[in-house]
Amino acid sequence: MKVAVITFPGSNCDYDLYKAAQHVGGHPSFVWHRERGLSGYDAVLLPGGFSYGDYLRPGAIARMSPIMEDVVAFADAGGPVLGICNGFQILCEAGLLPGALVRNDSLRFESRDVLLRVERTDTLYTADYSAGQILRIPIAHGDGNYEADRDTLERLEEDGLVVFRYVDARGEPTEDANPNGSWHNIAGITNGRGNVLGMMPHPERAMEPILGSTDGVALFTSLASSLSALAS
Amino acid sequence: MSRYKLEVRVKPRPGLLDPQGKAIHHALQSLGWGGVEDVRVGKAIYLDVEAASEAVAIEAAEAMCRRLLANPVTEDFEVSTVGALQEAGS
């Protein structure tokens, strides 16, 4: 699995993603945002961080980077594109995913472990999870409140495009379990085609016992095995 | 060509929760301004634009809003001219 980790000025989870890809046997490379071309890559990862200092809106300036034209073309051709945290914000700004991520309703930067429920196990990214499985994954964001217009939100639910939801220990998407005010406790969504995934929580920070959780591993093994299944 | 000073106001769309506005609203109330019924926080962006006419300058700023300055999912925008106009080079 050849993986491009796109780095922007202000990315800060790029090495974590690089390590996560290596952890599951992948071959990652950093691709600087001013470079062009993504041929030869099997998947593209957009890391978390604060690209361009979140100026204007998180992701708004990064989305105009030269490489983003290639990321959009890669996604349009069906290539897997995963955006985590700031990467999710960039995917929304780029129009690869619907909606937007606005200020947390708590008005605080939320940095802690949360519980997620796996809503879909038939995606490239979640095949190694079980349906309804509850994951412990860290979040670290100030703008993770998922918003979209009513029609889009209804379509997301009708089409089953919500992949991860914030839940409590019983697996219920309660208001208390929602760290940022996201509509319907949305933590991660996919596009209709299923090749683009955006999520606010950080699976790449839940890869080893010493980090407090290994619940992120299956996301990357899912991607690696989906890709090798596609290749064979 | 003339130079135009433009003000772009970007504000949260009606109905969208604006937690900053809510926090400021509470602060105003606790300072005794009980008559304040709602607070919304937006941002203002000031542009110096050289264009053939005021209408062209405004049109350009509106295009900038659609492409970059505002997010149509969450924000509305308004553009107006502010300050004195100046002939370029004068």
| Overall spatial form of chain B | elongated
Class by helix and strand content of chain B? alpha+beta
Count of helical segments of chain A? 5
What is the average of the pLDDT values of chain B? 91
Helix content of chain B: 25-40%
Biggest interchain interface, per-side counts: A-B, 20 and 11 residues
User: Main sheet of chain B, how many strands, which sense, barrel?
Assistant: 4 strands, antiparallel
Q: Given the structure, what is the number of helices of chain B?
A: 2
How much strand content do the residues of chain A show? 15-25%
Poorly predicted runs of chain B are none
Content-based structural category of chain A:
alpha/beta
Mean pLDDT of chain A: 96
Number of strands of chain A: 11
Query: What is the succession of H and E elements of chain B?
Result: EHEHEE
- Using the CA coordinates, give the radius of gyration of chain A: 16 Å
Helix and strand run of chain A:
EHEEHEHEEEEHEEEH
- What's the total number of strands of chain B? 4
Name the assembly state: heterodimer
- Strand line-up in the sheet with most strands of chain A: 2-1-3-4-11-10-9-6-7
Molecular structure report:
The complex is a heterodimer of chains A (about 230) and B (about 90). In chain A, the strands form two sheets. A nine-stranded mixed β-sheet of chain A has the order 2-1-3-4-11-10-9-6-7, sandwiched between helices. Chain A is globular. In chain A, helix 2 links the parallel strand 3 and strand 4 (about 80-85). By secondary structure, chain A is of the alpha/beta class. Helices cover about 25% and strands about 25% of the residues of chain A. The mean pLDDT of chain A is about 95. Chain A is built from five helices and eleven strands. The two termini of chain A are about 10 Å apart. Chain A has helices spanning about 15-25, 65-75, 85-95, 150-160, 215-230, and strands spanning about 1-5, 25-30, 45, 80-85, 100, 110-120, 135-140, 145, 160-165, 185-190, 195-200. Chain B is α+β, with helices and mostly antiparallel strands and about 90 residues long. Chain B has two helices and four strands, in the order E-H-E-H-E-E. In chain B, strands 1, 2, 3 and 4 form a four-stranded antiparallel β-sheet that branches. Chains A and B meet through loops of A and helix 1 of B.
